[in-house]
Amino acid sequence: MIHTSMIPDPGLPTHPIFYTVLDTATLLGVSRNKVYQLVNSGEIPCIRVGRQIRISRAALAQYLRMDMVQAS
User: Can you give the pTM of this predicted structure?
Assistant: First the structure.
């Protein structure tokens, strides 16, 4: 028997909306310090929840698009 709680809701995103610095570093294949540098320079916009930094999926996608355009 399949419990309905085990079936994903198609209306919910499968990936988190916000990433931690460590998540972002892992996704980009860089160090946490590099992500902090990108955040502090404003290259990657973030939000702060107390002392924690969160990077939205949309902000990360925008950074990657900008970086790809500059590299071309």
Answer: 0.73
